[in-house]
């Protein structure tokens, strides 16, 4: 069931004084529904069954959500909202929807490049609204990079796309209970990682990670473990010299400023429990160096957090799972954790705790 805003509803984007009067509602969150052929719409509909201390609005095609709810046998009242409409505390059974029309009728499990612009527009709309200060955080459901590129649109990932809209120095970090892993490089072929890992890049990533652990996670003196790039962290230069020529000078200079950094350390032993107990975050040099460990530890409960942006953005730790779309078997845990983390980061409550 879709409900339209009542006549005479407040104009979009209420002034700051009005927002102050409704602060008890909680932060305002926008959730993008992701690839329409995947499980993103299913997960967004599941949010309607939960209770969250926030105003929660999903950016999606209402017809898509209604059809998917019928397929899943869910009774959800879709409440259409204009961008920036008056805040309302999220209530189970109801889902606020910022309507954005899909280009083609999505079918579960069947990718259609015609819907790539729709997917990107939901991300762009949410990003712009948060950047303007009308919403407090953006939470993103999974997208399919391949079908977006098949549509002729260069796209390497959410992180890079949002950064292009907002500016800043984006750093990808995933967090699971007991572990945070940030990445010095993100979606690159392995053959390109060494060239991309310059001293300037490493220092920028470390500065963003260090600052956001302090400012957003309320950790006054972050302890960071830094992975080496090569096996055995280069074995004294016998297995590669990046640790000696690129990494060590940067780490030494930052330690001189009082930063609590250990590394470069061999990645095959860095993740031992005795080491992680003494760390607030790990910095891995490339995607598949750190994330397999984190996903083994907490897949389905992990949250993707983009650091270094002027907005708060969290996301799920998994992909579109096309084979699960519309089956009712998709696990909503990661999206729920992403929403909860966004609330914590936006309010400052619980931000110092492990996600």
TrEMBL record:
InterPro entries: PdxA (IPR037510), PdxA_fam (IPR005255)
GO MF annotation terms: 4-hydroxythreonine-4-phosphate dehydrogenase activity
Cofactor note: Binds 1 divalent metal cation per subunit. Can use ions such as Zn(2+), Mg(2+) or Co(2+).
EC number(s) given by UniProt: 1.1.1.262
The family this protein is said to belong to: Belongs to the PdxA family.
PANTHER family: 4-HYDROXYTHREONINE-4-PHOSPHATE DEHYDROGENASE
Complex formation: Homodimer.
Protein name per Swiss-Prot or TrEMBL: 4-hydroxythreonine-4-phosphate dehydrogenase
Species for this entry: Candidatus Methylocalor cossyra
Gene name linked to the record: pdxA
């Amino acid at each position: 069931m879709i409900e339209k805003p009542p006549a005479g509803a407040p104009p979009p984007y209420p002034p700051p004084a009005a927002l102050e009067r409704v602060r008890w509602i909680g932060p305002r969150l926008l959730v993008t529904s992701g690839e329409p052929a995947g499980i993103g719409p299913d997960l967004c509909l599941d949010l309607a069954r939960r209770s969250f201390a926030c105003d929660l609005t999903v950016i999606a095609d209402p017809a898509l959500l209604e059809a998917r709810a019928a397929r899943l046998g869910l009774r959800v009242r879709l409440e259409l909202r204009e961008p920036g409409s008056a805040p309302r505390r999220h209530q189970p059974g109801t889902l606020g929807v910022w309507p954005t029309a899909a280009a083609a009728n999505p079918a579960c499990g069947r990718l259609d490049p015609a819907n790539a612009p729709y997917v990107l527009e939901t991300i762009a709309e949410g990003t712009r609204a948060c950047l303007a200060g009308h919403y407090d955080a953006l939470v993103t459901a999974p997208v399919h990079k391949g079908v977006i590129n098949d549509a002729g649109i260069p796209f390497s990932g959410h992180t890079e796309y949002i950064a292009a809209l907002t500016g800043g120095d984006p750093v990808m970090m995933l967090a699971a209970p007991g572990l945070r892993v940030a990445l010095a490089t993100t979606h690159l072929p392995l053959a390109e990682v060494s060239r991309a890992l310059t001293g300037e890049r490493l220092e920028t990533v470390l500065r963003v990670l260090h600052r956001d652990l302090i400012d957003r996670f309320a950790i006054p003196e972050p302890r960071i473990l830094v992975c080496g790039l090569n096996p055995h962290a280069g074995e004294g230069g016998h297995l590669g010299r990046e640790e000696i020529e690129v990494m060590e000078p940067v780490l030494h200079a930052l330690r001189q400023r009082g930063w609590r950094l250990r590394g470069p350390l061999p990645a095959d032993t860095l993740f031992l429990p005795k080491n992680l107990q003494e760390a607030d975050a790990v910095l891995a040099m490339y995607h598949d160096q750190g994330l397999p460990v984190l996903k083994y530890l907490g897949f389905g409960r992990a949250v993707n957090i983009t650091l270094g942006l002027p907005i708060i953005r969290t996301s799920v730790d998994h992909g579109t799972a096309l084979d699960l779309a519309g089956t009712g078997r998709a696990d909503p845990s990661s999206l729920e954790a992403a929403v909860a983390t966004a609330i914590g980061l936006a309010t400052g409550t619980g931000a110092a705790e492990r996600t």
